[in-house]
Amino acid sequence: MNKVPLTVSGAEKLRTELFELKTVVRPRIINAIAEAREHGDLKENAEYHAAREQQSFSEGRIAEIEGKLSNAQVIDVTKMNAGGKVIFGATVEIEDIDSGETVTYQIVGEDEANIKAGRISVGSPIARALIGKEVEDVVIVKAPVGDKEYEILSIKYI
User: 15, 99, 102, 153: least CB-packed within 10 angstroms?
Assistant: First the structure.
């Protein structure tokens, strides 16, 4: 399987979620199943079926996170020499040439992307256009509504 890029904070969030699932959620579900079994007939026991469904979801999420972490290439942007260029993990402030609107994005892995939090996937059209560019470069992003031009105002490696 190919390595999947993750920022240091993205990998830490996954590890934290995995720890929570294994040490808090899993034992709570096991207790709920045991308690529901004590109530008798499992065929008509809604609590038992709900707990088993939660267990299935939780175990699936544990396996998913473990898979992501095992295939992750954790990239610490603070320790890389980017030479002033936009790279994975960089935080980039750009200005829309037409509207003058500015926006700041951090380029992250697919699983970390959250547009409302200003994190865009490395595979997104904007990120692909920005990678390798420098401050004051103008990039053209192919968008569904047409081409958009942005100027790079700043690049931070935090």
Answer: 99
